[in-house]
Design goal:
The chain contains five helices and no strands. Helix content is 70%, strand content 0%. The protein binds heme C. Heme C binds at residues 38-39, 41-43, 53, 57-60, 67, 75, 78-79, 83-87, 89, 101, 105.
C-alpha cells in the first residue's frame, strides 16, 4: 500500500515536471522561430545586430549594457511600438508572441 502511494506520488510529480518543462520549451521554440523569421535580418542570430541591414540601420547589440538594463516592459514597448528604424510589431504579433520574444532575447543576452 505504501509503495503504491510513493509510485502514485512520483507519477504525479513526473506529470507536473514534464508539463512545466513543455510549457517552457514551447515559449522558447516560439520565441526562437519568431526571432528567426521577423528579427534576424536586422538583429543577427546572436542578437548583436551584426548583419548588413543591422549595421546600416544601427541596430543595437542586445548585449549592450543599455539594453541589458531595460525592463521587460521597456522591451515590450519598443517591440510593439518601434523606435527610430526599428519597425513596430504590435499589430503583427500578439502579446504572447512578444513575451516569448523577450524571453528569447534574454536567452541571447546570456550567451555571448
Ligand atoms: C528592419 C530592421 C529591424 C527589424 C526587422 C527588427 N529590428 Fe529591432 N531594432 C532595429 C533597430 C535599428 C534598433 C535600434 C533602435 C534605436 O535604438 O535607435 C532596434 C532596437 C530593438 C530593441 C531595443 C534595443 C535598443 O536599441 O533600444 C529591441 C528589444 C528590438 N529591436 C527587438 C526586435 C525584435 C524582437 C524584432 C523582431 C520581432 C526586431 N527587433 C526586428 C531594427 C530592426
Amino acid at each position: 500500500m505504501r509503495r503504491r502511494g510513493i509510485l502514485l506520488a512520483s507519477a504525479v510529480l513526473f506529470c507536473l515536471v514534464s508539463s512545466v518543462a513543455s510549457a517552457q520549451g514551447k515559449t522558447q521554440n516560439n520565441g526562437a522561430a519568431l526571432f528567426k523569421t521577423q528579427c534576424v535580418m536586422c538583429h543577427g542570430a546572436t542578437g548583436k545586430g551584426d548583419t548588413q541591414t543591422g549595421k546600416t540601420l544601427d541596430a543595437v547589440d542586445f548585449h549592450d549594457p543599455e539594453v541589458m538594463k531595460m525592463s521587460d516592459a521597456d522591451l515590450a514597448k519598443i517591440i510593439g511600438k518601434g523606435k527610430n528604424m526599428m519597425p513596430a510589431f504590435g499589430k503583427r504579433l500578439s502579446t504572447i508572441d512578444i513575451d516569448d520574444l523577450i524571453s528569447y532575447i534574454h536567452l541571447l543576452q546570456k550567451t555571448k
